[in-house]
Amino acid sequence: MAIKHFTTTANGRILDPAGRDFRVIGTNVNGNAMWGQKNGRESSSVRQDIELIADVWKFNTIRVVCTLQFNHPDVWNRIWHYDDIDAIVADFTAKGVVTMLELHDYTGVYPLLEPGTVNATGDARPVSLYEFTDGWIELASKYKDNPYVWINIMNEPSHNNNDKEWVHVWREFFKKMDGREYPGTNYDKQLDVDTYYYVHDYIINALRNAGIDNLIVCDENHYGQASFDVEDPLGNGSACIYCGPKLSAKHKNLVYSIHPYGWTDFDKMKKYADTMKELNLAWIFGEYGPMWGDYATHQSTFNVLTIGQTHNIGHMYWDWSNDPMAVVDKDLPGIIGGWGWEIDCKDGTKPKNLSWYGKLLWDDTRGQLTLPLSRFTMPFLVNGDFAKGITNPWHNHGGQLQISKGASHDGSDCAQLLAGNNFTGQEVDPANFKPGYSYVLSAWGKVSFGASGDNELVFAYTPTGTNDENQAAVLTFNASEWEHKETTFQIPADVKIAKARVFFFRKDDASATDFFFDKVNIRNA
User: pTM for the complete prediction?
Assistant: First the structure.
């Protein structure tokens, strides 16, 4: 008797093996020791939390992050391993929890074509497309008779980074294959979606030919975010939208997945959802979540849950135990925590320590979430004093922002932006800034030595209906001794703010020195 698998329908629905509508509500989990941590717990396996995940939280899906390769510098998860995947699959699927296996090997890039291909930095990537495909067949074949195992081919492929080796390798491949050429020599959006289609079609075809009929999940490009353009929704900015109709016409039972951490524009997310619906593509939010103190991820989470209700779209938060996506309110050192296993009631009654997001998630797993959703409230600015010895949620591009212990004007910790052409900042909640009201921006700052060019602390906002960012307040620091500065600014009475941010910008002639700052604050005037 043939195994009945999950299926997708012509109108984009997901059906379970019994033919019932299935809406994903779940969490990402580690295959074993993710990022070298033991699940944030005393054990090395997420299996210790199976009752919490399946019976208490009532998640119906987990996404198990794992990898084929271990010791390669281009692989984010090179210290991960998955030696208990069989047990994870057995235990969770026995409870009727979909167990989505996902290979994280090629985050931000695509597989190459030959083993040992050397990238721009001289590192050899040991697993080619063909080896990667063989690895998938070996792994997935073990579960081809278990419909509750789904296959998530690869995590967040591609990014428009021109020094990534996939760009020139795939340019040459398509030119040799059929004479296809692309303008310029660097990253190209059409090259991106063409590579996306070829790689996914190749792997899916191989899996299906091997008799593996499990439902297959395909992540969006651009680190899972897509470069979706609301003015050209069917263009080549989204690989799922551009390639999905062709892939789904050729292969049955595909689900597409987007990871919208920074999609603060609700209309953009709605347009994406409407476009996927028009194309009759089944899809989910495979990763998302509100990072501690980060306005953009909170607003994007609000949008995800709203679209989830209005369009009946599933979602999986990142993650159960190893990132600052707080589902409970807990002031933990290093803001690592607030995890699902830290709830204060584990008997199925609603916990009392759930965060704003945790409350919504708890209701959603029980079919009790209703619109309109309660909105979160963010402070004017988060972690301006660096008192916990952490930099979140200030952006830390390339690891250039660090904590300087005891170096502040008062002997406390402060932030140190290392020399170079780098900057840091954070998005802030635009709802806090009312038309016609005045506010004060203040901070302490100094440079590492001597006189330098200007280091500027800026409050900037973008009015609703425009793309024009206005710098409402600027503080300038260029002395080697600590200075305290502040300025008052007013939001025009006829302006409603759509976006706002605070950031330090370093002029070129200031880039030779480190910049120290502390006690950054915004308050009502």
Answer: 0.90
